[in-house]
């Protein structure tokens, strides 16, 4: 088990190196000289040259890459061209809303998706199952940003129950913060709950067909114990994978949702950076998110060890 | 004789397990019917996309500032946007753009993904390096990677296709590689190699056709994800240029005028939902038909 643990943790290293390399490549993806692309078509040649020096683009490519790795190891993401301050600072400042939004979204997705999947599997092929799965299919077909727009229209504009947009930071009160994130988190989580419901249902159905379920029923256990104690425990593993992926996917979704609701998070940061071609910021945000994604996947894998003794004793 | 016996035995077994079997077949039938609905929705979308110039009524880029933000009426079925462009035409042409982007992204990710998958699965020396790069690409949430690439590539339809295509290459490559690893050990591949058939011919004629069906199923989901991806990128202002009619572009304008002109959000929104729902239903049905092993397992790609 220790070997497995070590192998799994070490396997993250090459992925991280490739992720860092890909983030480096991003800036060189544009045809021609990145410095003049960043400076825009109307920049003076002097400014372009200055920018090139500032970004280290005047060095040969392999040296640039070595410096890039070196800086990353020190936790230095460089300076924003437009904001004129370290990228790490700008990113950390924008982290709170995105993180909270993603967490609320995941919570909503799990709280709706898992019970819906269990009920669907328990009453397999019943009207409840059919309608829940029908709903899930419709849910999978709504882009989260569209759901957000529709919610603003109904609850913000027509009914006037909730603020149309905007964000209240956490230190201005937990309640007001949660209220400002309510609609964004629902539009983010609800769509994802459809996916979780489908996975939970199908893995529950698989487990319910197994021999130990049959023998459980044969020895007279009531259906409740069979479903919630014996089946659920075994069915939760694929669901757990999806919950891990959900958190990561929702980071991506949050980026889009932030634009819908005017929330000053990482999403707004990267979009404005794209529009200004502020590459260090783009690279920083992308790297941070990819690293988070990889770490979460690692944690999910490690959680298997805790949950499933079959993996632990292999 | 034996076949007749088999048939009788089969019927007995069928009647014996009637209750559970009937449920399963009913479900399959139900799903097929649903898949049919999906196919109809997809076909309708394609038809609208092809016929866009004929049913568009207005030039989707024609400005008419005097009748800006006009509500739906007999002249402008879906109303007009903030510079007086006809929303019906923009939604119709948006369907066209979505189909073009979806189709091209599938093509792009199929060609690259199949080549990488075949190389990685067949020539083991490429495998490690190739698959690590694919892992690296997959370590980014798709929409984030696409946004970042759009920064360098610049807003255009082709660049949206390239950015989204690159996002989905690893997904195709992984599936193909998985199948190739199994197929290359089969006797018929061994036999072909023993007969002196060249590697390229073995890959093309014997291995490729046998690993296509899961990829084709995945293709419908990539198509759906690409349509969603384009809409999201354009909505964020980093996708196709704003004057080109696209669902995401109309929704981006709609966000600014949600209060005065909800039709800018409702109509393209309904179009996206119908399109994605159709693709998901069709994909589910296709998977049931092509790959019974995966029956009931969910695979719809959601990348934003």
Q: Can you give a write-up of this model?
A:
The complex is a heterodimer of chains A (314) and B (304). With 314 residues, chain A is mostly helical. Helices cover 78% and strands 0% of the residues of chain A. Chain A contains 14 helices and no strands. The longest helix of chain A has 39 residues, at 223-261. Chain B is mostly helical and 304 residues long. Helix content of chain B is 73%, strand content 0%. Chain B has helices at residues 2-16, 18-55, 87-122, 124-138, 142-153, 157-183, 187-194, 199-207, 212-236, 247-256, 263-290. The longest helix of chain B has 38 residues, at 18-55. The interface between A and B is large, with 62 and 54 residues.
Helix and strand topology:
The complex is a heterodimer of chains A (314) and B (304).
Chain A: H1 2-10, H2 12-27, H3 34-39, H4 45-54, H5 61-73, H6 87-122, H7 127-140, H8 144-158, H9 174-208, H10 211-218, H11 223-261, H12 266-276, H13 279-307, H14 309-312
Helix pairs in contact in A: 2-5, 2-13, 6-7, 6-9, 6-11, 6-13, 7-9, 8-9, 8-11, 9-11, 11-12, 11-13, 12-13
Chain B: H1 2-16, H2 18-55, H3 87-122, H4 124-138, H5 142-153, H6 157-183, H7 187-194, H8 199-207, H9 212-236, H10 247-256, H11 263-290
Helix pairs in contact in B: 2-3, 2-11, 3-4, 3-6, 3-9, 3-11, 4-6, 5-6, 6-9, 7-8, 9-10, 9-11, 10-11
